[in-house]
Records
---
Amino acid sequence: MKQVSFLMTVVLVMLLISCTPTRKKEYASFDEYPVPNGDLTEMEYTVHSTTFSLWAPTADEVRLMLFDSGHEGHAYQTVPMEPADDGTWKATVEKNLLGKFYTFNVKINDKWQGDTPGINAKAVGINGKRAAIIDMRMTDPEGWNTEVKPAFKSPADVVIYEMHHRDLSVHFSSGIKNKGKFIALTERGTKTPDSLSTTGLDHLIDLGITHVHLLPSFDYASIDESKLKDKKYNWGYDPLNYNVPEGSYATDPFTPSSRIREFKKMVMALHKAGIRVIMDVVYNHVNDLGSSNFERTAPGYFFRKKKDGSWANGSACGNETASERPMMRKYMIESVLYWMKEYHVDGFRFDLMGIHDIETMNEIRKAVNAVDPSIIIYGEGWAAEAPQLPADSLAMKANTQRMPGIAAFSDEMRDGLRGPFNNNHKGAFLAGIPGGEQSIKFGIVGAVKHPQVHLDSVNYTKIAWAGEPTQMISYVSCHDDMCLVDRLQASVPGITPKQLVLLDKLAQTAVFTSQGIPFIYAGEEIMRDKKGVHNSFESPDSINAIDWRLKALHADVFAYYKGLIALRKAHPAFRMGKAEMVRKHLEFLPVDGSNVIAFRVKGHANGDACQDLIVILNARTQMTKVTVPAAKYTVFCKDGFVSVDGSLGTLYGPEVYVAPQTALIMGSY
Ligand code: CA
């Protein structure tokens, strides 16, 4: 008996040791932090039990709190979590927890870090404070598992339309019921009150874009989701929960499944309409470092510091994440794959991509390719302040050649056309100021090496940073800075309404005949303005909303943009996709003086029906004569009109005349 009781005591003590929910772990550096195998799932629900897991390698203690509500009341149960060897803490609750909410709380050095839904919540309550226990399969709209993505052949075929949910639908003239919501993009047959113009999704289909690029649509902090009647506006570059849709774009943000199901409905409707969906992802910084889910689970780990010990701030938003650390890298890869698999997202635009390291971006591309190589990836190849990593290791524009399959925005072309980002009132090529020509040519070839582009005269970059032209995003305006109409008004002294329209069209002609991937900002195609506001990130709807009545007023502008897109689609010579082919077929033609660019794409490039395609961009206020190869040309674009079928007539070389502030596009057969 004595022996037995001794044995029992030993077993009991061993059990107690193995079950004790306290553990202290010190690491000499972040490199020593254990990295768990497998994915970073924090909550796994079944009807019988729910398993929780949180990576908190430096914690003394971790507890799970269960709530009945997403925002009210105290926890009805607190569950101590148990440490595992890989830095995670685990707990299983043997009950059906469907409909409940949870948070984690981590104790480090005797200090509780504050409630957090974890870094990987997939569903949340109002304002993203508590994670929700839901059955994700219940959020799938009917037909979700069999829905099909629109066809995709090459990134060279992509035409991107950057939009904010509120901008697109919130104005009364949109005729859209679900204003400012994800499902605004599911509504068909919407029109302006006078029935003159289609709006929303029908408008996008008519325009002919291939991809919508959604401004931040993950859960962000700046809008109080419980006070939507306040009609507050924000772009959303203040991330809270990276893997949950934003609540203010849902019809019922209090119900966790609402935002998820409605996001999926939106994707499905866009896919059905032949349009793919790109998400703007902002892994480079969080809304508030101190209260972030990262900092409350593994303090210090997810953020870079400066040499003096203060927090680094490459985002100019107060912090800078550390993509080079294994768990942050793993987190980013998993998050991207999650949006692809759970939400059928087709592309990602990385905000301030230059803060991330090259290796992480390449790992993301590799992981994405393993699932679906048709997913496009691009980003801002810069940072707001110099990040705390060596410049040659960062995903900066200059390093694009080391990131195959990832594109960067060309500010060279953008500013060569409209003027520098740091001075709204300074014009360039479009304003008739000489000097932007080489920067625009750099953009026309898609930022690849080309014998006729003189890099020493290109504005920001002295190297041809793209390996392939599809690694360059070609644009003249986006949500940042003034929109095109405002910029032209601010930077072209004495501009008349007629000139405004002409220069707007001319600017996008450069964009759409570039070998890079063309990108436009929503509403430019109907001359939207933002009343001159340069940084409208939290401006009211009166600044940001698209007034759809402009579409009838500027029917010719809409027809022009639509025509440019159709022309690009009809002519493979405008989307060669390969640097070698661009160098072989694209030739700039000599012109006298400044503010005129002429080029031809010769020799049935990329299988084009045309022998030669000629493009002339004339930003001068005078008619300009240009010498082209002697031939009979079918005119596709002239005097501010575009026609794919050649109804604009014919011209004969070798001398052609281009009207002031217009483009001429023509082809010989
Ligand atoms: Ca939110």
---
Amino acid sequence: MSDQYQPQPEHKFTFGLWTVGNPGGDAFGEDVRPQLSPADLVYLLGEVGAYGVNFHDNDLIPINATPAERASILKAFKQALAATGLKAPMATTNLFADPVFKDGAFTSNDARVRAYALHKTMHAIDLGAELGAEVYVFWGGREGIEVDAAKDPVAGIRYFRDALNFLCEYVKDQGYNLKFALEAKPNEPRGDLFFPTTGAYLGFINTLQYPEMVGVNPEVAHEHMAGLNFMHAVAQAWEAGKLFHIDLNDQNYARFDQDWRFGAQNLKQAFFLVKFLEDVGYAGSRHFDAHAFRTEDYEGVKDFARGCMRTYLILKEKAARFAADAEIQGLLAEIHADDGSMDAFKGAYTAAKAAALKAHTFDRIGLGARGLQYEKLDQLVNELLLGVR
Ligand code: DIG
Ligand code: MN
Ligand code: MN
């Protein structure tokens, strides 16, 4: 398939080892694909044209690996990176799979588990830095509750803050070029997760000791699980200077975490997300935290990975066509026209301005009667996306 939708390094498309390496097992069924080695997954991503590969510590080095096994895996992984030219822009810690974290990691009620989570994360940060990661993600998959009586949410918030402050100090102490990106999710695998949305994290970051080191990693599926407009979450993060990373996939509303191929479910939302990222010049990774359907073999997994990237590039072209569409742009100019009649009231507050505004007479009925032409605008967008303009 050679056309203008071929991924290039400048697109910064990345995949986690756990995505293309997912053997397809789920809560109701066995693996459907053999487990590939991290090095083999790097070659697979190189074949489909990805820019980079991300990993949890234990995607790369099994939690019970011997030092010799660790050295061998790491050597093969580095050789694969060198051979393919792939980067490793993001790393993270698996603080959710091992039974030790069954009641949380940083927010566990058990101080020994909280300390072990810091221990594990510092070693994982070392590994990420060694492989060139510049973003370190924290997804609190087990940081939550099924039983509110068992855990005070304020204690959970404070434990999480203590852990992040400690780890920011560690990164500064080590001189690593790393910034942290917090990834929200409302539930699953716990009944309720702390910090359920990107907005919750944006409120939390400012309470940290080093807020400048910490941003967010919004994921499509997770904001959709909360019934939210993903692009709006991304826009607020961007506007706050906190969009450090992004997890792209797709997700039907009111479903468990589906982590589908980008654009597989909600093409219009995917379009407005791509349009936003391209309009603002987002320079970070386009990370596909997504999984191929369980129906697929590894050729299907490659189709999945190519589909994620192709859909992004096709929607990027649609965004350019949106910007160049004279009828759409003309309508937007009309919609956003400003006759300057309110200029005297704009800008910083003054007592005189407030007095004049209070005294001003508005044509409330006329303002409310205007037709805004949004039906026409939205239909034009649909026809753009349907390929008829
Ligand atoms: C799941 O959405 C989470 C974990 O896979 C990982 O910690 C993070 C990194 O993208 N996403
Ligand atoms: Mn997810
Ligand atoms: Mn994710």
